[in-house]
Specification:
The structure is a single chain. With 157 residues, this protein is an alpha+beta fold. The chain has a domain of 89 residues: Immunoglobulin-like. 34% of the residues lie in helices and 38% in strands. It is built from 3 helices and 7 strands. Strands 1-2-5-4-3-6-7 form a 7-stranded antiparallel β-sheet, with no helix packed on it. The longest helix has 39 residues.
Length: 157
Amino acid sequence: MTDMTMRQKGSGKFILGCFLGFFALICAVDGLFVYTAIHTNTGVVTEQAYEKGLAYNDTLSRAQNQPDIRNESSYSNGVFRWTLSDLENAPINSAKVNVLFFRPVKDGYDFELPLAYKGNGVYEAKVDFPLQGLWTAKLNAKWNSKQYQTQTNFIVK
């Protein structure tokens, strides 16, 4: 009986050790998740979200009052190209065109470039992106007291 009593006392310590070890493992993994979340995400999704929300009706109004045009954008071989024409396929010439490039998944790599006019409604610039992956281009064109804005997503390889 003494052996049985010793086994029962030993098994109680073993079960307690397993129980405490399990919760220690859970706490360690949760701590790793918290550390990773704090150090990898800025927490900011949209800068000045409240002000942009208040101005949302103005944003919708500007979008509805844009001129009707045809536009096509592309990125290949390090060159970003945007072609602009009216609804009758007449090219839109001598516009002032800017593009804001940003990464939707990571802050800190946004930059803006003007696109040079190449003729026949084509505007382009050679772009050296700091990272591969998904990028968004916010395109803005101004000509003859008109303004047109759009955005497009593309992948840099």
